[in-house]
Amino acid sequence: MPDRRLLNVVRENSKLLIGLGLFAVVCAIAWIVSVRIKENAVPKGPPPTAQIPVAVKLEPVLAKDFDIYLRGLGTVTAYATVTLRSRVQGEVIQIPFKEGDKVKVGDLIARIDPRPYQVALDQAKGTLAQDRSQYENAKLDLKRYETLRDQKSIAGQTVDTQVALVKKYQALMLTDQAAVDNAQLQLDFTRIVAPIPGRLGLRQFDVGNILTSNDPQGIVVLTQTQPINVIFTLPESSLEEVRAPLLAGKKLVVDVYDRPDTKRLAQGYLTTVDNQIDVTTGTFKLKAQFTNDDDALFPNQFVNARILVKTIKDAATVSAASVQQSSQGPFVYVLQDDGTVAIKKVKTGATTDDRVVVLDGVSVGDKVVLEGTDKLRAGAKVRVVDDNAPNGSGGQNPAGRRPGGSTSPKTK
């Protein structure tokens, strides 16, 4: 009997515990639901706004002739350089030129005292005149002897001797004439003249100095700078690109720029390619010639040379700034009709400082993003900014259109 009563008590307590547990669960659920209701009832500000368009500048893919240049470092060299030296010895009595003057062929550069050489010339002429008179006298005697021989008045030996004497004076006259020519040449050498046109450098002698023949120092250096040459180098891998058009008879244009490679100094033509490759540097030399009418090029000046080897006709080109790089290769952002941009992978070809040839990926007329690419992603809305738009106008609308028509972005 007591066991049954105990069993009943346990059963009653179990029911009570189960009821309390269920009550606790219900209370917990009710509390969570009320908290959620309160949280949803708290205002969180205005609803999310639409995506803000990114301001960008566009440019169209252009079809234009694209020049391919090879670049090399070069040095300006004079077309001709002459160190003027004296060929005779004597005192300098005249230097009529000014340092830096331009001279023509035959212009007087310096004059050496000619008096000793004039005396030598006069002596040589006197000797020639003396031997000429003896020669003439010997010829007259020969005629007389020949007449007497025909009359059997003198022996033939006398005539033969006179013939030999005439020939002797003939030889003396030749020697005398050579002495006269040499003396005249020495006298001419006292006038030092310009053998080529060009510009004079700094003179090394003044009036009153004694010059010796073939002095190694020279009087002055004369350089011909119109025309002028530029010698530059290219890697041996570029040899065929240069030789092929040359062998085809094409005249290759060469532009030279200053040391910073920003300002073009002159334009000329390639004249020759060296006949060997420098094995130590793996390069070969080329020579180009320029008229240099404005004296923009100066001997020994360092320049950057660009040689035009090929022109691609109607190539699809974009600005180099519009081409982006990723791990998968180059790409561009292309404007879509709905005012968003799409990523287009491209295959690029030849490049210059500011233009790139696009071989595949976009078509001529497509509009690509030139500025503002750092804030873009695929599908982003854009707002086209026009440099020519009035202040405060905000440029074009997101679709890239203006009321009353459309305008292509400004390109180079």
Fold topology:
Layout (H helix, E strand, L loop, with lengths): L1 H40 L12 E7 L1 E23 L5 E5 L7 E2 L4 E5 L2 H36 L5 H33 L2 E3 L4 E3 L9 E2 L8 E16 L3 H9 L5 E5 L6 E15 L4 E8 L11 E18 L4 E3 L2 E7 L5 E5 L1 E5 L3 E6 L6 E5 L10 E3 L28
Parallel strand pairs: 1-20
Antiparallel strand pairs: 1-19, 2-9, 2-13, 3-5, 3-8, 4-7, 5-6, 7-9, 9-12, 10-11, 10-13, 11-12, 13-18, 14-15, 15-16, 17-18
Concise account of the structure shown:
This protein has 412 residues and is α+β, with helices and mostly antiparallel strands. 29% of the residues lie in helices and 35% in strands.
Key terms:
cell inner membrane; four-stranded antiparallel sheet; alpha+beta; conserved putative lor/sdh protein from methanococcus maripaludis s2 fold; Multidrug efflux system membrane fusion protein; 412 residues; rod-shaped; Elongation Factor Tu (Ef-tu), domain 3; 4 helices; disordered C terminus; six-stranded antiparallel β-barrel
Order of helices and strands: HEEEEEHHEEEEHEEEEEEEEEEE
> How many discrete domains?
4
Q: How widely separated are the two ends? A: 111 Å
The helix/strand class is: alpha+beta
In quaternary terms, these chains amount to single chain
C-alpha Rg (nearest Å): 50 Å
Overall strand count:
20
Per CATH, the class of the largest domain reads Mainly Beta
**Main sheet specs:** 6 strands, antiparallel, barrel
Based on the coordinates given, report the CATH architecture of the largest domain: Beta Barrel
Helix content: 25-40%
How would you name the CATH homologous superfamily of the largest domain? Answer: RNA polymerase II/Efflux pump adaptor protein, barrel-sandwich hybrid domain
Shape: rod-shaped
